[in-house]
Amino acid sequence: MLSNHTPMNSKQIANLLIVACVVALIRMLWPKAPPPAPAPRASPIVRAAQTENQSVDNSPPPQAALNTAAADAAAAQVAAEMALKFAQAQAFVSGPLKLALNRYKIDMGEYPSTAEGIQALITPPARAPNANQWRGPYADATVVPVDPWGHAYNYAYPSVHAPEGVNTFDAWSGGPAGDNSTNIGNW
Question: For the whole model, what pTM was predicted?
Answer without folding.
Answer: 0.62
